[in-house]
Amino acid sequence: MDMNAPHSAPAPQANALRLRDAATPIVIVGHVDHGKSTLIGRLLHDTGSLQDGKLAQIVESSRKRGLAVEWSFLLDSLQIERDQGVTVDSTRIPFRMDGREFVIVDAPGHRQFLRNMITGAADAEAAVLVVDALEGAQEQTRRHAMLLRLIGISHVIVLMNKVDLLGYDQEKVAAAEASVRALLGQLEIPVDAVVPASAREGDNIAERSPNMPWYRGPTLTEALADVPAPSSRSNLAFRMPVQDVYRFDDVRFVAGRVERGQIKVGDTVVIGAHRTMARVAEIGAWHAPVQAAAIAGQSTALRLEPDVIPDRGDLLHTPDAPPLRAARIRTRLFWLRQEPLRVGESFTLRLATAEHQVTVASIDAVVDMDDLTERPAQEVPPEGIAEITLAASEAILFDPFSPGSSDGRGVLVDRLQRIVGGAPLIGPAELAPGERSIHPTASRIEASDRARARGHEAGVFWMTGLPGSGKSTIARAAETILFSRGIDAVVLDGDTLRAGLCADLGFSAEARAENMRRAAHVSKILSDSGQVVIAALVSPSAAERAEVGRIVGEGFAEIHVATDLATCEARDPKGLYAQARVGKIRDFTGIDAPYDAPTAPALSISTADVSVEVAAAQLADFIEQKVRVRDAG
Amino acid sequence: MTADLLTEAPLPSSVSTRPMDDLDQLEAQSIFILREAYRKLKPLAMLWSLGKDSNVMVWLARKAFLGRVPFPVMHVDTEKKFPEMYAFRDEYTKRWNLDLLLGYCPPVEEIDPSLPPAARSAARKTAGLANLIEKHRFKGVIAGIRRDEQATRAKERVFSPRGASHKWDVRNQPPEFWDQYATPHEEGMHIRVHPLLAWREIDIWRYIERENIPLVDLYFAKNGKRYRSLGDQDITNPVESNASTVAEVIAELEGSNTSERAGRAMDHESEDAFERLRVAGYL
């Protein structure tokens, strides 16, 4: 066998003369069924970009399913996608036109696949927004357009598809176009071109349509060819987030990617929030010429003098152009979690290689997807778009988000390490006059680790019921039972709270609501620490109990102590009913103030026919079954 | 092989501050990915199939870590590779100072009999890989797949989480954007790291040319045939070609319009054979 490399002679440097640009990523977005996949198939076919045999394969796959040529099968490579007719994940297809390389990113239009669209679209240079000319802009058209703005896509081409179904009629097409232009204008998205086309018939895709002699603008391929190459970031101020620090053969190198600007041997850099200064002594590289400088986009390794040891996430910058510094940051948000986002939730904010613990200090505006107006709200709905304020316990160095750069690209990660949102940072948050900056911190201990250590999970078991129904008595008895079973529970009852924490509160509606709010927050703090909380409060208002559930979040369970009024009044352990009946106490729940019984409690206990022991055992069993960490298997 | 550590450096003839071209950008992104994996996923290993992409990947690791590969490389051996590949492995393990881990594959009789024959044979490798990952409890496994190889691979993430069963949950892939990657959050989970995902076949060859990266010579034409992609001997077929140097291969690819994996039997057995392999943990 000849092991001599057949190419051992110095390789001809054919490429040295002309720099090849990287491929331009183009994302195709639009409402479901507006024809994205058909467009991509047509584009690849008409530009001769289909691999040999691919067309035959598509024809065969289509025939098997009794369809005419289904272009979308080019992209829907998974069998589930073809069989169910939906694209489940974004895909990328390289394609070449007039010597220029493109990568087409196909982003699924279904709402639940937003995360895949973001995955595909976030680094695109340009977008083609496909709009069915008959239907005009739809919900996903608006949503996708909004996202294009949020992720900072600089060039948008609108393809008015299916104009063959409008008989290529200029007036009808113009009307459809006007509505889309109005939408994009509202979002302040500049439009490179609006191309009336039929992807199925091939009008104005790669070839000028003979059916629309009135149209003088570019075809789709002409519009794509006009998208400029990304501009260089080498002339901006220097930024390099530290990715890692290596020590090889007793030499330390600070590794990272230059995100913008450039750095030369001999330059001084400032390191991170602690502002240490160092000089670049060497730019390390293997199998490359000796480097005197590193420029934006390069993954490099710097040897610094003095030999300081930065942390991952420290931002290196030059002294003359520092980034912003703030502990409260306003940010746009695209929310990817299936549950809503609420004020007070804590996350890790990933910003390049840095990780900061942050809390949502406020939700400042939520975008209404029907009319794209912004309004204040209590929560950001699943897959919603909003503007929020994040608070950190220490100052964060950052540059505001700017399209076409990696500045300010924040990403929110939850405790389970899931990416739950994108946060293009706007700037430092201004405090209202009189408002004081607060910097909540989040625990670094995982709930699962606490549960493992304690042998049980946390939970808040909120007992509601009429005065005298037996809540506190049952709660205290259950506490004892649970303790004997190794479950650490704590009881919060109304009178105990009022004796201390809530001693300043009376019994007006506002004071009762405040009492509930405090009890809810204490429950939340205790359960966050891994405790089982049994709260025993009359809590007559269903709305207020719902608010408690919101504050507590996961692990909240409503327990109804459903002892009837007659029994409670007959017992009257504190003599309160008697006083209420003669008017000595006003607004007494059950007598002259309403009690909203829970409609769907997690557990309902009545003490009318069972003893306290039996009721307490019921509650203890229920709690144990909810919080006990099950053995694996 | 003429290239050794001292002479394998006919350096790119460039000024260091020239603008980056497409290969520079692909290289920089791959280095970024490898450094993320090295920092975040411990223990970490790289799959080294001995093919061209794999060699480019080892090369990129040496670029990322200033001449070293600071984690083991794994060869999952089906024991059906070409003899040239084994010779190459032994030579370059030494030359590149690699920490080589070998994994062996179970016999084909132990593999899902409902798979078509070539796919069933290829699935041995999945099983061999799973054994290695479990034995060493790897949190990260770097693999050299590319989006342009096969449409199913085009749907992959750069950091692709695998559950305890090593299955690829294509319907439930995590979001991945702005260079923020998934991290393992459950016991038994690992991440497949794909630093070459954005590279195309032609990019690999141009980079091999630029960097003068050594290859098994099965890639170069003898008697009018060469291998474009290397799998097991019994399920890989050579293609018609007269390209006997890297430059000739590049010229041939510039004019070609067929798929690289055309010579891989399992890709053509049934519409979903490759998808089934991948969902089960194949590369």
Features:
heterodimer; A: 633 residues; alpha/beta; Rossmann fold; Elongation Factor Tu (Ef-tu), domain 3; 4 domains; six-stranded mixed beta sheet; six-stranded antiparallel beta barrel; 15 helices; B: 283 residues; two-stranded antiparallel ribbon; 8 strands; disordered N terminus
Concise structural overview:
Chain A is of the alpha/beta class and 633 residues long. Helices cover 25% and strands 28% of the residues of chain A. In chain B, strand 2, helix 3 and strand 3 (100-104) form a beta-alpha-beta unit.
Describe it.
- Chain A is built from 15 helices and 28 strands.
- The two termini of chain A are 54 Å apart.
- In chain A, the strands form 6 sheets. In chain A, strands 2-3-1-4-5-6 form a 6-stranded mixed sheet, with helices on both faces. A 6-stranded antiparallel beta barrel of chain A has the order 7-8-13-11-10-14.
- Helices cover 25% and strands 28% of the residues of chain A.
- Chain A has 4 domains: 24-225, Rossmann fold; 239-317, Elongation Factor Tu (Ef-tu), domain 3 (Beta Barrel); 324-428, Beta Barrel (Elongation Factor Tu (Ef-tu), domain 3), CATH 2.40.30.10; 448-627, P-loop containing nucleotide triphosphate hydrolases (Rossmann fold, 3-Layer(aba) Sandwich).
- By secondary structure, chain A is of the alpha/beta class.
- In chain A, β2 and β3 (100-106) form a beta hairpin.
- Mean pLDDT of chain A is 86; it is low at 1-17.
- In chain A, α11 runs parallel beside α12 (542-552).
- Chain B is α/β, with parallel strands linked by helices.
- Chain B has a domain at 22-199 and 268-279: Rossmann fold (3-Layer(aba) Sandwich), CATH 3.40.50.
- In chain B, β1 (44-47), α2 (52-64) and β2 (73-77) form a beta-alpha-beta unit.
- Chain B is globular, with a radius of gyration of 18 Å.
- The two termini of chain B are 29 Å apart.
- At the A-B interface, α3, β2, α4, β7 and β8 of A face α1, α2, α3 and α5 of B.
